[in-house]
Structure formats: C-alpha cells, structure tokens
Specification:
D-Maltodextrin-Binding Protein, domain 2, 9-stranded mixed β-sheet, alpha/beta, two-stranded antiparallel ribbon, Arc Repressor Mutant, subunit A, 3 domains, 310 residues, 40% helix, single chain
Length: 310
C-alpha cells in the first residue's frame, strides 16, 4: 500500500468513473484500475462494485475511503506545517462559498488575494451550506465561507462580518411608503423567497414567520438567485428580503431598498474549517483581505440581532 494508491482510491470515490478519475490523477485509465485492483488484492476485500453505469464503493470500501482521505489529509498537513514554519503562503486552498454570498463577496477579494500571494492557488466553488459542511469533514474542501453558527463540534468558526437584512420593495407594495421596516411589518402577501436548501430562505422565515397570504398567487416561483427575486419584485409589486452585499451600490440611492429599525437583523458570516486545519495564518490573511474590501459597518461586533438559520 502506498500514498499513490490511496490518491487513486479517493479519486475513484469522488468521480465514480475510472476514466474521469484517471484524468484527474493525470494517469491512464489502465494504470489507475491496476493500482486500485492491487490495493484490493492486498487488503483481501472488494472496495468498489463495478457496473455498466459506473462504480460505487462497497460497505467496507466506504470505510477504507474515509480512512484514506484522513491519511492523505494528514500527509498534506505535514507539508503545511513546514510551509508555516517558512512563512510561506503557497499551495492550494479549496474554498466553498454559499450562493447568496459568492456573486457579491468573492469578486471583491479574489483579485486582491491573487495579486498579493501569487503562489497561492485558490479554487472557489459555490455550494449550499450542508454540502460545504460535509465536504469540510471529508477534507475535499479546506475552508468554507458561510452563515453561522453551525453548532457542529467537528468544525471551527471564525466570524468575519455581520451582514444586515434589507427589504427590497416594489413601489406598488404597502411597505414601500415606510422609511424603516420592522419584522412585524412583514407578511406573506407579495413575499418572494429563495428555494429550499438556501440558509437565507430559512433566516427570512425565522425573521418574519409570515402567515398565509390573504389571496394566494395564481402561480409560484422559488428562485435560487437573489437577482431573480429582485426582478420578480419589480415586475409584480411584491417584496423580498436581501443581504446588504447584494445591494451595496444601491443603499441610499434606490428607494426600493429599505433598512430595518434598530436592532437591525443580521446574518453572521464566518470562515469555517475542520478542527484539524493547521494553516491558521492563512485564515487570518484571508479574513483581513475580505474585511479590507468591505464597509466598516459590516464588521463583526455591531449591535444587530443575529438571525439563525438552523
């Protein structure tokens, strides 16, 4: 058994195809197949079921793959410890960001981080919170940027910002005339929501808990995009709630954007890592780069009301 075989094993579990796994490992498909088979022969168990539709780990294979991921992660940590001692910010950083943050926050810091640390290879993926949490535990992501608290003992949270909820209200909606909103003002009439699975949807419902609308719409549409919700609001005389970063350039300029009365409802956004993550100076650097691109009012410690999503 060697590390290369474990890498092939993990790649095959990740991609569930011999050809694709071999491409990702930069080897031929016969080479990868042969090494996985040798590992099975050495262990004396079948690790994968091969079918015409692909491959999937057997029951024992799942346990072996899980342990292989842990071994490879610990080997990577050995390299990271050396890099830390040398003061280097190099290598790969795999970052998962939730969709309600990624389009507004990532463009603010990505270019700056790349310019400041050219030897750091940053790979960013948009993923929902549950997927980020699981992949941090599987060591297929290094860092998550998502809404907290998560209440998960396997993960460590480093708060970065507190982002207010704002109303986005069409001119024809009753809330448009209000200077400041309160949770008591919010009801289901005209409210547009993100689809199931988004933590922001759960936070909106936890904030306003709207009763059923007096007159149900003749249609429903639950979007995965805040930008789509804004367009729906504008065309249907409805309203929605949005995170401040999504309307950063509109605050104080667009009368459709409404703040809440104090204490403003906010969502806590944190960098999240597995407790085994050792590149803590890199986390501090990433946090500093992000905060440098944001208004000071979004920094942690404001007198806002944190809205939970779990």
């Amino acid at each position: 058994m060697n590390l290369q075989q474990l890498e092939y094993l993990v790649a095959l579990d990740t991609h569930r195809q011999f050809v694709l796994a071999a491409e990702k490992c930069f080897v031929t498909q016969p080479t990868l197949s042969m090494q996985v088979q040798k590992l099975e022969e050495e262990l004396g168990v079948l690790l994968f079921d091969r079918t015409t539709k692909g491959v999937r780990p057997t029951a024992v294979g799942e346990k072996v793959v899980q342990q292989a991921r842990q071994v490879l992660r610990e080997v990577q940590q050995l390299h990271e410890v050396v890099q830390l001692e040398k003061g280097d910010l190099v290598g790969e950083l795999r970052l998962g960001v939730i969709p309600t943050l990624a389009p507004y926050l990532v463009p603010l810091f990505l270019v700056e981080l790349a310019a400041r640390y050219p030897q750091l290879r940053l790979h960013v993926e948009e993923l929902q919170s549950a997927a980020i949490m699981q992949r941090l535990k599987d060591h297929t992501l290094d860092v998550g940027l998502l809404v907290t608290p998560l209440e998960d003992r396997a993960l460590r949270e480093i708060p970065v910002l507190e982002e207010p909820f704002l109303g986005y209200v069409a001119e024809g909606h009753p809330l448009y005339s209000k200077e400041l909103l309160t949770p008591a003002d919010l009801d289901a009439d005209g409210l547009w929501l993100l689809q199931q699975g988004h933590c922001f949807r759960h936070q909106v419902l936890n904030l306003c808990n709207p009763p059923a609308p007096a007159t149900p719409r003749p249609y429903t549409y639950e979007s995965g995009s805040i930008e789509t919700l804004k367009q729906l609001v504008a065309r249907t005389n409805g309203y929605t709630l949005v995170p401040e970063l999504s309307v950063l350039d509109e605050v104080g300029q667009n009368p459709m954007v409404k703040r809440f009365a104090a204490p403003e409802p906010v969502r806590e956004v944190s960098l999240v890592v597995h407790h085994g993550f050792v590149r803590l100076p890199l986390l501090a650097t990433l946090r500093d780069v992000i905060l440098a691109q944001l208004p000071a009012r979004l920094q942690v410690g404001r007198a806002g009301q944190k809205i939970r999503w779990k």
